[in-house]
Amino acid sequence: MKRVVSIAAAVAMTAGLAACGSNDKSAGGSGNGSSGSEFKAAIAFDVGGRGDHSFNDASYAGMEAAKKKIPNLKITTAEAGEGENDQARENRLSQLAASGNKAIVAVGFVYAKSIGTVAKKYPNVKFAIIDDASPDSKGTNVEQITFKEHEASYLAGVAAAKMSKTGHIGFVGGVNVPLIQKFEAGYFAGAKHANPKIKIDKTYLTPAGDFSGFAAPDKGKASANSMFQKGADVVYAAAGKSGDGVIQAAHSAGKWAIGVDSDQALTADKSVAGSVLTSAMKNCSGTVEDFVTSVKDDKFSGGNKEFGLKEDGVSLATTGNHLSAEAKKAVDDAKKEIVDGKVKVSPTPSK
Description:
Rossmann fold; 2 domains
């Protein structure tokens, strides 16, 4: 981590930022030079921040990959605070734009309204938002990066059903919002395709509007423990840092956890990583890397870019080689059916 911009610092600068707007040539001037030969880019994290072993870390990995291509890249990081509002997020993004960053990545749909507002104030700065394609974040200088999480989750469901010895699996969602419901929808569909009689428990750690569900490993652990005690032997967590608790619970119970966004068999604590059966991944790293390099190379193009199995934007991890031959074949067959268009995975849970 190069530098952390705190919420307090962002708020303190709000008055000064109000005068910048779209007329601030130092922050949004033409060309991609910044502080001489230095090229500045920034990433604003979602709740859970660095060390979530999930999509915040995966997104930052994209920044590190971009630095290998852009030696003069200076990366600024900004952490999110629990329970903050749109104004706090707007202040954070404004501070980053006013500091001369040419490419700014906002991790998570919670930044939708704030990035839409700030992007208009700094038309010469390029922004990217992960997991949102709503009108709130839309702008000519905004790239909306979204994924077909339901497709990777479908494969996770197939794997879970094929590997379950009890015919009973579970799903833990961080926050009950449409994005996380996509994970649920795909997982349920894939599991039922592999085993029509499969029993699936589900729970959401917090309701819509309460984003603490993405940063509560204790709640994730308690929910998974409850499922394991009821007979589930594989639990999939789409819950950000809260998924750490699900993996811990799986390890203690001698059961399996399925990770999300990153390959959590590699990112989870080594003492419990062996309990990660597989992970439904999305290529946050590659998309962030492409965004930053496109800005540096003057090849930026805004708008929504959606990535699924066909585009290698989502996938299922094989680290640890835990899947049986039967499960591997079922997953491979399911992937081919989706890529070939023979199976359409719904992004919304069935009623």
